[in-house]
């Protein structure tokens, strides 16, 4: 008789299965990122991590960690210090401040086992009251199979980093700790960075149905800021630091620690209760404006955030009910100083700000017929802001309903649609900014609107081990009172915030990938991956800006790769970035050019080790990565942040 070989599938991963089920039960754009895949390419910030996530515009900034992040048109004011519009979570607990500032520099993508990105109103599952949605970073644990490992990496412009992870399981207890360090000299003047981090978690099984886990992280991140360049400076020498940044010794130094706990009680086979609490402290030292003898600014503050969440989920026949509550409070103390680099400081403004945020959300997933699921729910938000420097305080309240429909075409393919209300209150930073055109101490209005979305996702086996997958979403949002901040042309470094009457945010988000055998042996495969985002962000009959295009995000962003893989573990292939032109001002008079970048990555993966090399911008293209936004930008405005020139990154991973 012929020999019959039986191969076991890869061990089931309950965490991944739960996240995939969450994705399949959401009638809108949701993406799942596998942290293991990040170890086969250069990843130093969120822009690298989110490279193939549709609907997001993530651009690297002035240092390795600095990222401008926009999801479905959130955060288009492009003020680098105030990254709002996207709720950041770790294991379902908040990393964002209570006012919505997401502080994305304090999230290390390499410390996540998975990340799930819920775009726009699809973040109702997390109760997030933000325009752009939410990202939940799932921490690896020793109990779920995270290996002991060493990661080392190096790259152009003095980049070097290393991580060591050790874990253990002993009866009802498990623990995991990661120590990380990173150094970066930068391709521009005055761009050095030094970061050290510690991440740890420990879990206890308190019986058959109850488990609890404690999370601890500490980050010490010091980075120089090279400042913005004028267009002529960028053309002449994109590697230079601005004279103002060098003279003023611009920096962004943050010391952070965070302690969190999550307890899960499996009440019975159909119901679960989750309770979480987190405490975070950030100390910010931030010299950012130096224009003597007229004005200088050094921000020296301490921010404390307490967050909590309660989630109850119950399955009742054809219904899957979720009830949740999020509460958070952030206080910011300290002050704004005038300064001389390395010398005297004089406080001219005391910072004493506070934000509270309460979100109550209810959602039901009702499978009312075979292959049909109705998803409906609502979110109630009440939040308060107190800004001492502007003598402002006020409350914001809203009820945000949502209804969606999922049609399961096959076990692996579905159509979806939803109509939802989106809502976001202003951050403390936005309220601190001056508001032109109105009386003093006038509160900004919250942003709100209605979004319509349709789409499809799935995968299909083609025989012979071949397969392809797709994820497509099309959305249209009518938005009122969008908060837009722009640099004050009379006082560089000072922003002005306004509410725009009516704006439109619409777009197409698509990701297509696959794996295809070359020949009959199956030892050679091609794996293409394409992420395409088309944006349509505009004012709508604005009295000042008419129907101008909103700045910061491109109309088209395409990221792609074509990877050849051999059964031995070798892989290699080209990468491609195509980004259309963008406006840098609301008046649409200053255009930032489009660009196309080519790259190449390769590596080898074995059972217990892997190595990779990645070359970026092989054509050494001169391009602008991100920029500050103005009302009407002038030719001599120093607003441009150059993108990295030709560069090479290598890394290795050892599991033991």
Automatic annotation (TrEMBL):
Q: Which Gene3D superfamilies match?
A: TonB-dependent receptor, beta-barrel domain (2.40.170.20), TonB-dependent receptor, plug domain (2.170.130.10)
Q: Does the keyword Transport apply?
A: yes
Q: Where in the cell is it found?
A: Cell outer membrane
What does the record say about its membrane topology?
Answer: Multi-pass membrane protein
InterPro entries for the chain: Beta-barrel_TonB, Beta-barrel_TonB_sf, Plug_dom, Plug_dom_sf, TonB-dep_rcpt-like
| Gene Ontology cellular component terms for the protein in this record | cell outer membrane
Report domain TonB-dependent receptor-like beta-barrel positions.
228-618
All copies of domain TonB-dependent receptor plug, residue ranges:
26-134
Q: Which GO terms describe its molecular function?
A: siderophore uptake transmembrane transporter activity
Query: Which SUPFAM superfamilies does the record cross-reference, listed alphabetically?
Result: Porins
* Pfam families per UniProt: Plug (PF07715), TonB_dep_Rec_b-barrel (PF00593)
Q: Which UniProt keywords apply?
A: Cell outer membrane, Ion transport, Iron, Iron transport, Membrane, Receptor, Signal, TonB box, Transmembrane, Transmembrane beta strand, Transport
Would you say which domain of life the source belongs to? Bacteria
**PANTHER family found in the cross-reference section:** FERRICHROME IRON RECEPTOR-RELATED (PTHR32552), FERRICHROME OUTER MEMBRANE TRANSPORTER_PHAGE RECEPTOR (PTHR32552:SF68)
The entry sums up its family as follows:
Belongs to the TonB-dependent receptor family.
Q: What is this protein called?
A: Putative outer membrane receptor for iron transport
- Organism of provenance: Hydrogenophaga intermedia
